[in-house]
């Protein structure tokens, strides 16, 4: 399944899900033709559990005409070949890319992707880190057949004016033929038609329109009403393409220290969640994603932070359907100035932002765009990078507030750049400070450094606990200690007047890079409320009880 709803009724498409050939380039299995699942991680292939290198994926496909290949996520660098010819290159595991092959001869063709998950100077964002960069085609691959013109994307921003819901619509239309073509578009939503302006398209054009959607029901976390927005493209009165998106009528705004969801102040009871699973690596199937969100709901959680990269569209579709609020962020974790001065860093970050917002901006569940988790927000060069990335986000989507998770405490010089101030803190784990005292110090500093009067979120808080390690002395790394710390952290912080929410670090235990293993028992980050198999730790009941004391509105 590519999305939780059908994206085309007219454009033919097929998902290339299933068994592919994989040929490792190095190591003991170099040159062997193995079988693997796509989507999937090569770490699930016997003998490749620790493989960091290149591998060639291959699949034979029968098709013809104008063929569009969409890759939803390849970890972490892809070089795509079609019948042996290079046709696309992409860096970053967590955002989609595509390529269009014109006038393909009807018949069988060979699709190959050389996938690379190595670390090195070419990769500024995938580095040895406190999470694992898996290898493989971790998200779906889709083959579409196009006519001469097609809709690449439709973006729909809901706005309320004078008590009525409107949609501000934009679409990118592409023309594969040499001569320009006149196109017409019509969208349908909630039984209503929206006519776009007739447009002459040379190679591509952005079309815009706005319309009131009468009697639209609002989208709220407790009643997540979704509408399909179906758009058809015509040439000379003949429908040649279509695209369906899904929208929810809600507005996110800031009022003083409050984050408002359709005008009501929310309280975030969230979890930071890596895409990681003992059985699937970072290529979780839909069933596992559903299970994670049902568990988060059972914990009385109402929000997820996609730490630290854009998430699978299907997961975001599920958040839309379940009314789980999302902080989505670009791909970066703990990069200091030296890392940020990698010559590829700025472009790789901006590319990730472009692709993240192009891909995900219609999801009503996404309420905050985040960037650069715990990067160098305490230096002038780092500030320039934060500034540059916030400017790009606000240019692409001014409808959502922006933030970043800081760990630079009272050295942070970027708090004036955000709509919402967010800090990661680990009282009683990395620090002996009491949670309330720690949070008050952060709020106080933020008030002197550009954050005065802004909403304040604790974007990470938590403690480690190794599943199955029980200890009556409540020693560190025991489940008892983790439960005790989390209980205190939530009790002391979540009802603070200055704080409008928190994200627990983290939902589940995750694999980390070998380079981190000396301070990560099991070569895992063990701060999950459940372990990598989703087995509950003692902290589960504590979090469930304490989160359950609070409503989702302040
Ligand atoms: C940081 C970081 C997380 C994780 C956490 C930890 O806050 O943002 O990715 O590494 O620390 O477990 O220490």
Give a description of the structure.
The structure is a single chain. The protein has 554 residues and is of the alpha+beta class. The protein has helices at 286-298, 313-322, 337-340, 345-360, 380-396, 435-448, 479-493, 539-547; strands at residues 13-15, 18-24, 34-38, 54-71, 77-82, 85-91, 97-116, 141-146, 149-161, 164-175, 181-189, 192-195, 199-201, 204-212, 219-220, 223-224, 227-235, 238-247, 252-255, 258-261, 264-265, 268-272, 303-305, 325-329, 366-370, 402-403, 405-406, 421-424, 456-461, 501-505, 510-511, 524-525. The strands form seven sheets. A nine-stranded parallel sheet has the order 26-25-24-23-22-30-29-28-27, covered by helices on one side. Strands 1, 2, 3, 4, 5, 6, 7 and 8 form an eight-stranded antiparallel sheet that branches. Strands 11, 12, 13, 17 and 18 form a five-stranded antiparallel sheet that branches. Helix 7 (479-493) runs parallel beside helix 8 (539-547). The structure holds alpha-D-galactopyranuronic acid. Alpha-D-galactopyranuronic acid is lined by residues 130, 307, 333-334, 373-374, 407, 424, 460, 505, 525, 527.
Task: Describe the structure in brief.
With 554 residues, the chain is α+β, with helices and mostly antiparallel strands. The protein has helices at residues 286-298, 313-322, 337-340, 345-360, 380-396, 435-448, 479-493, 539-547, and strands at residues 13-15, 18-24, 34-38, 54-71, 77-82, 85-91, 97-116, 141-146, 149-161, 164-175, 181-189, 192-195, 199-201, 204-212, 219-220, 223-224, 227-235, 238-247, 252-255, 258-261, 264-265, 268-272, 303-305, 325-329, 366-370, 402-403, 405-406, 421-424, 456-461, 501-505, 510-511, 524-525. Helix content is 18%, strand content 35%.
């Amino acid at each position: 399944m590519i999305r939780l709803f059908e994206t085309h009724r007219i454009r033919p498409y097929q998902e290339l899900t299933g068994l592919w050939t994989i040929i490792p380039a190095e190591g003991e299995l170099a040159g062997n033709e193995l079988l693997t699942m796509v989507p999937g991680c090569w770490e699930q292939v016997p003998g490749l559990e620790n493989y960091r290198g290149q591998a060639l994926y291959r699949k034979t496909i029968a098709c013809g005409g104008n063929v569009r290949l969409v890759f939803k996520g390849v970890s972490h660098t892809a070089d795509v070949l079609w019948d042996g010819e290079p046709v696309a290159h992409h860096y970053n595991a967590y955002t989609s890319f595509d390529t269009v092959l014109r006038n393909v001869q009807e018949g069988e063709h060979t699709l190959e992707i050389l996938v690379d998950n190595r670390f090195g100077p070419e990769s500024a964002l995938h580095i040895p880190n406190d999470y694992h960069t898996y290898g493989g085609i971790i998200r779906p691959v889709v083959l579409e057949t196009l006519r001469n013109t097609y809709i690449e994307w439709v973006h729909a921003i809901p706005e309320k004016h004078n008590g009525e819901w409107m949609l501000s619509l934009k679409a990118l239309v592409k023309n594969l033929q040499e001569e320009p073509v006149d196109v017409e578009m019509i969208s349908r939503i909630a039984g209503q038609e929206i006519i776009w302006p007739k447009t002459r398209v040379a190679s591509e054009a952005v079309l815009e329109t706005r319309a009131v959607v009468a009697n639209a029901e609002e989208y709220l976390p407790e009643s997540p009403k979704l509408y399909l927005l179906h758009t058809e493209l015509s040439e000379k009165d003949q429908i040649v393409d279509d695209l369906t998106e899904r929208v929810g009528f809600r507005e996110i705004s800031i009022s003083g220290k409050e984050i408002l969801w359709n005008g009501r102040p929310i309280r975030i009871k969230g979890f930071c969640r890596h895409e990681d699973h003992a059985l699937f690596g970072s290529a979780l199937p839909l069933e596992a994603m559903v299970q994670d969100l049902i568990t988060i709901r059972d914990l009385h959680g109402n929000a997820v932070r996609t730490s630290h990269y854009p998430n699978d569209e299907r997961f975001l579709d599920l958040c839309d359907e379940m009314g789980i609020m999302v902080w989505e962020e670009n791909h970066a974790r703990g990069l200091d100035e030296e890392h940020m001065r990698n010559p590829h860093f700025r472009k790789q970050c901006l590319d990730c932002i472009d692709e993240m917002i192009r891909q995900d901006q219609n999801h009503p569940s996404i309420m905050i765009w985040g960037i650069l988790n715990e990067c160098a927000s305490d230096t002038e060069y780092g500030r320039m990078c934060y500034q540059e990335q916030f400017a790009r986000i606000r240019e692409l989507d001014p409808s959502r507030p922006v933030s970043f998770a800081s760990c630079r405490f009272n050295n942070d010089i970027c708090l004036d750049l955000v709509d919402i101030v967010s800090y990661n803190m680990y009282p009683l784990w990395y620090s002996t400070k009491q949670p309330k005292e720690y949070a008050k110090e952060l709020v106080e500093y933020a008030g002197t450094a550009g954050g005065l009067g802004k909403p304040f979120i604790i974007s990470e808080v938590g403690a480690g606990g190794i599943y199955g390690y029980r200890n009556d002395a409540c020693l560190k790394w025991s489940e008892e200690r983790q439960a005790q710390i989390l209980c205190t952290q939530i009790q002391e912080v979540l009802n603070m007047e200055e704080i409008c929410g928190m994200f627990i670090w983290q939902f589940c235990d995750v694999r980390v890079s070998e380079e981190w293993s000396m301070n990560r028992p099991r070569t895992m980050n063990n701060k999950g409320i459940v372990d990598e198999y989703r087995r509950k730790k003692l902290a589960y009941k504590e979090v469930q009880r304490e989160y359950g004391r609070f409503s989702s509105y302040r």
